[in-house]
Amino acid sequence: MNAQRGFTLIELAIVMVILTILAGGLLVPLTRRIEVQHIETTRKILDEARDALIGFAMSHSAGDGRPYLPCPDTNDDGLEDRTDDGCTGTSGNLPWVTLGLASMDAWGNRITYSVTAAFAKNDIGINPGGGMSGDNRICSAADCSAGIDIADAIPVVLLSHGANGYGAVSASGTTLTAPASANEIENDDGATDFVSRPPGGEGTAEFDDIVTWIPSSVLFARICPGGCP
Ligand SMILES: [Ca+2]
Ligand SMILES: [Ca+2]
Ligand SMILES: [Ca+2]
Q: What distance in angstroms lies between residue 180's CA and the mean position of ligand 3's atoms?
């Protein structure tokens, strides 16, 4: 008698069901892992951008001999945009070519850079002793309606629009779909209030932006460790 026999259709079906369940179970953690990796990569890109901005200020002297920060890139060529001694706009892309940095976050979109005008003038530079103050504010909710509960008077804010990319400028220079949630709209209006909060929510409550900044105290200490001229 031949003891060998193939699988019956029922046995094959059971195996397929088990494999499908296993694959599904593996897929979700994998997707989540990739997402966490993208967030970590983007945080690293933002940290490098902070260092590069400080490095730029340390190596550039305005007309008065003091350091100054680069202007945002407002025409998507990666180079800072200036008019006379100041910036064309105080919010735009991080000028990745000027700084020699990665041009995109982990999702393939530009990093947004907001700088206080007085810190990016190349005739009168940054003067820590002159009472200079940043004009960006960071809050945990839009409008800073519950008060400025995270940071005030910030000269530099850097922002990734996160995995959803709402409001971001893509690598091809296209502005993506505008955000629907008040907190993400706050980060997309080109003005000086920003929201930083843990990711979460859906629809009109969705938030996945990653925001970082350089306080004046840190900027002053880093660009002029021995005191500015
Ligand atoms: Ca430019
Ligand atoms: Ca977002
Ligand atoms: Ca805003």
A: 14
d(CA 119, CA 228): 14
**pLDDT value of position 140:** 95
Q: What is the whole-number distance in angstroms between the Cα of residue 102 and the centre of ligand 2?
A: 19
How much distance in Å is there from the Cα of 85 to the middle of ligand 2? 33
* Residues spanned by the domain of 28: 9-223
How many domains are there within the chain? Answer: 1
Average pLDDT over every residue of 203-227: 93
Give the number of the ligand closest to the Cα of residue 197: 2
pLDDT tens digits for 62-106?
Answer: 999 999 999 999 999 999 999 989 999 999 999 999 999 999 999
| Inter-residue contact 196 to 152 (CB < 8 Å) | no
For 143-183, write each residue's pLDDT tens digit: 887 889 999 999 999 999 999 999 999 999 999 999 999 99
Does 229 fall in a domain? no
Distance CA 161, CA 140 (A): 16
Task: Tell me, in angstroms, the distance from the centre of ligand 2 to residue 60's CA.
Answer: 33
From the CA of 81, how far away is ligand 2's center (Å)? 25
From ligand 3's centre to the CA of 222, what distance in Å?
27
Give domain status of residue 197, yes or no: yes
pTM for this model (two decimals)? 0.88
Gap from CA of 194 to ligand 3 centroid (Å): 5
206 assigned to some structural domain: yes
Q: Under a CB-based contact definition with an 8 Å cutoff, are residues 186 and 193 in contact? A: yes
Asked if residue 3 is part of any domain, the answer here is: no
**Cα 102 off chain centre by:** 12
